[in-house]
Design goal:
The complex is a heterodimer of chains A (270) and B (315). In chain A, 39% of the residues lie in helices and 23% in strands. Chain A is built from 9 helices and 10 strands. In chain A, strand 9 and strand 10 form a beta hairpin. The longest helix of chain B is centred in the last third of the chain and has 35 residues, at 280-314. Classes of the chains: A alpha/beta (270), B mainly alpha (315).
Chain lengths: 270, 315
């Protein structure tokens, strides 16, 4: 469903702040697969998601969704295929507009916007129903401004918006990292329910080893702009948070070794 | 009395400019000062077509279309060429000064004797009301003044309603959302650049429409007439927000119209009380300045008072 073919991205190329964020990332995601992405800070997890979403264009490589090459598509055009939830609960919703207006905007994701009424009867009916399923008591407050809600409520609604019309790929970028633990658990439960119900092809970045171990059917670990580990099927099922911590430690040690080895080689040969 | 009726009529006509400013400054948070040029553009296009015996409806529509293009140009400079928004407006406004001179061929065009909307309104008014002076609540009003006021009011109510309805459509809501959260709008498949271009186009179309009607009401178009329009529009929007708040777009639109009318009345009263017309723009700018800083000033004073009362309670 999603094919990431050796993409690279360097920010601030040629300056002192040069950052090689993605270095030839390859990733093939099967239809209906739920992929968890973990990695150290600055390993390129979020950059990978942004590259797929089209927040910037990659320097080389290609991104394909369901056979369409979207590498050169601007972000707004890719939205036809892609649903997104951001880390910041304020990024995914318009604070000064009502809950109903936000949801209705999302219901038209990827379709041209004409002069038809935004809020029409059948849509409002479905909205009421879907929002009630969140169990947050928001179904009677559809006319309230989005800005009056808590971060957790907004993130739950953003998730609803991103999946309202079934996306070919769902991107979740640490979407619970900014929430309090209780709201985070609620949003994770909702994520699991929606992804399973609609059998969505999903990429989810997380810092929580708990979430990484319990969710998804595949897990990849990123480091320095590359995919360094890939667990699928039974291997993924067996993973526990402790195993993941151990793997992190391994990656870190391997890197230390590399660096000291390189230093030794330099001393000997240069 | 004619002073009051004239102020009301002008207030209604100027509220088109306030509505345009409402779209750029409030809906998009885009400080668009193209309006100073596009209001004159609307007036110039309408005036030159009217003296060439074009139907007033067509001439006014041409003014509207001219403003639409000018706004779209500012939007394109700001989005496609990534030029600072304020500078984009300045560039287009400056260019429009020459364009307006080219259109009119000279620095002002008189509409004396031309078949304008003002004349149509006056004729219709005379047909309905007769040509005797009217007495409204004991005030003497000529049929010409009364019919102009009525025509302007009806026109603005229609324009406000159309604007309100437009912003409830799929397209209009996407435009509002762009001003609120551009990142979200892109993630939902809307090209935010296109929304800004279209939004500024609609904004300046309304402003130019105001200019076209103003020229017909006052009987001439002048290349200098647009100076200060943005600040006048902003003053109206701010007064409107003080009057009715900003809870919904419907209220904001109503407020902008009310603000414009009230502002014109204040101006008329100030002039009557001896304000030198040359000082009008200075007074307007000072007014907008005060209106902009008052909220934060009140907040600071409030927190100071809280602090001092907290200190006394400690003591």
């Amino acid at each position: 469903m999603l094919e990431v073919a050796g993409i690279s991205k360097t920010f601030n190329a040629g300056t002192a702040n040069e950052l090689r964020a993605l270095q030839g990332v390859r990733l093939n995601v099967q239809d209906r697969s739920f992929v968890i992405i973990i990695g150290t800070n600055g390993s390129g997890k979020s950059t990978l998601l942004n590259a797929v979403a089209g927040s910037f264009f990659v320097d080389s490589g290609a991104v394909k969704v369901d056979g369409s090459d979207i590498t050169k598509w601007p972000e707004s055009r890719r939205a036809k295929f892609i649903g997104r939830v951001f880390q910041n609960p304020f990024s995914g919703t318009a604070a000064n507009m009502s809950i109903a207006e936000n949801l209705a905007l999302a219901a038209h994701r990827g379709r041209p916007r004409g002069l038809g009424w935004l809020l029409e009867g059948t849509l409002l009916g479905r909205m009421h129903e879907q929002v009630r399923e969140l169990n947050m008591g928001l179904e009677d407050r559809l006319k309230n401004a989005m800005g009056s809600l808590s971060g957790g409520q907004r993130q739950a609604l953003t998730l609803l918006m991103a999946t309202w019309s079934r996306p070919k790929v769902l991107l979740l970028d640490e979407h619970t990292a900014a929430l309090d633990p209780k709201s985070a658990d609620q949003v994770i439960a909702l994520t699991d329910r929606i992804v399973k119900r609609d059998q969505l092809t999903t990429l989810m970045v997380t810092h929580s080893m708990q979430q990484a171990a319990s969710l998804g059917d595949r897990l990849i670990m990123m480091h320095r702009g590359q995919v360094v580990q890939d667990f699928a099927g039974a291997d993924k099922k067996r993973l526990r948070p402790d195993d993941l911590m151990a793997r992190f430690e391994e990656v870190r040690r391997a890197e230390l070794l590399d660096e000291s080895a390189a230093a030794m080689l330099r001393r000997v040969y240069v | 009395m004619s002073l009051l009726v004239g102020a009301l009529t002008l207030g209604f006509i100027f509220s088109l400019i306030a509505l345009g400013v409402l779209i750029s400054f409030r809906v998009f948070s885009f400080p668009d000062i193209t309006a100073d040029g596009s209001s004159t553009l609307g007036a110039a296009l309408a005036a030159i077509l009217l003296v060439n015996h074009v139907h007033p409806a067509l001439a006014t529509a041409a003014g509207f279309a001219g403003g639409f293009l000018a706004g779209a140009l500012t939007g394109a400079l700001a989005t496609k060429f990534r030029i600072n928004g304020l500078l984009s407006g300045i560039l287009v406004m400056t260019a429009l000064y020459s364009v307006n001179l080219r259109i009119m061929g000279r620095s002002n065009v008189s509409l004396l004797g031309a078949a304008t909307f003002a004349l149509s309104a006056e004729r219709a008014g005379r047909a309905v009301l007769g040509s005797a002076t009217l007495s409204v609540l004991g005030w003497e009003v000529t049929p010409r003044e009364a019919s102009m006021l009525l025509a302007a009011a009806v026109f603005i109510v229609l324009a406000g309603a159309v604007m309100y309805l437009f912003f409830q459509t799929n397209l209009g809501t996407a435009m509002r959302a762009t001003g609120d959260n551009a990142q979200m709008v892109r993630a939902l498949g809307v090209n935010d650049d296109h929304m800004i271009i279209l939004g500024l186009a609609v904004s300046n179309a309304l402003v130019a429409l105001g200019g076209a009607l103003l020229a017909q009401y006052q009987g001439f178009a002048d290349v200098q007439m647009g100076i200060g329009m943005v600040v006048w529009g902003l003053a109206s929007v701010i007064i409107g927000e003080a009057l009715v708040g900003t809870r919904s777009l419907g209220l904001s639109i109503t407020g902008a119209v009310m603000g414009s009318v009230l502002f014109r009345l204040l101006v008329a009263i100030a002039l009557r009380m001896g304000l030198n017309p040359n000082d009008l723009k200075l007074a307007t700018a000072v007014f907008v300045f005060l209106a902009l800083i008052t909220p934060s000033l009140l907040k600071r004073m409030g927190s100071l008072r809280q602090k001092s009362s907290a200190e006394t309670s400690h003591a």
